Amino acid sequence: MTVPGIITNITNFGAFVDIGVKQDGLVHISQMSNTFITDPNEVVKLQQQVMVTVIEIDMARKRISLSMKDKSKVSTKDPIKGMGEKRAAKLEKTPGLDDPEAKDSLQEKLRELKLKFKN
């Protein structure tokens, strides 16, 4: 799931992003760029608006792992090649954020995340 967020804190190991749920998510330095970086300040600034992808939610430790990598530039290989036909078809049919159905789906997923972190 890809969501908008705002950088709230920058550390040596990454940046924390407010995605609209109770707990800020962490973008580890290895997930900030498709290229190697040594300092998160090379990529982000405080209060910068970013689009992040939710990688993992650890409810027990109340942690959200995020990525800022551009999926279209992750690999020079064809990302669809090698995956099953059903999965490839689903990936190709993923709607963009300009699609009203995608916006509703995104809002629903954000509501679910908020409910999980209300505890």
Give structural notes.
This protein has 119 residues and is an alpha+beta fold. The protein has a single domain (2-70, 79-116), classed as Nucleic acid-binding proteins (OB fold (Dihydrolipoamide Acetyltransferase, E2P)). It is 21% helix and 29% strand. Strand 4 (49-58) and strand 5 form a beta hairpin. It is globular and about 35 Å long. 15% of the residues are buried.
Strand content: 25-35%
Poorly predicted sequence stretches spanning 5 or more consecutive residues: 74-83
What sequence of helices (H) and strands (E) makes up the elements? EEEEEHH
N-end to C-end Cα span: 22 Å
Structural class: alpha+beta
- Which percent range fits the helix content? 10-25%
**CATH class annotation:** Mainly Beta
Q: Largest sheet, described in full?
A: 5 strands, mixed, barrel
Global morphology: globular
Tell me how many strands there are: 5
| Continuous helix count | 2
Specify the CATH architecture.
Answer: Beta Barrel
The H-level CATH homologous superfamily, spelled out, is Nucleic acid-binding proteins
> How many structural domains in the coordinates?
1
Mean pLDDT, rounded to whole units? Answer: 79
Rounded Rg: 15 Å
User: How is the CATH topology named?
Assistant: OB fold (Dihydrolipoamide Acetyltransferase, E2P)
Widest sheet: strand order? 1-2-3-5-4
Task: Name a few traits of the molecule.
single chain, 21% helix, alpha+beta, 119 residues, 2 helices, OB fold (Dihydrolipoamide Acetyltransferase, E2P), globular, 29% strand, five-stranded mixed beta barrel
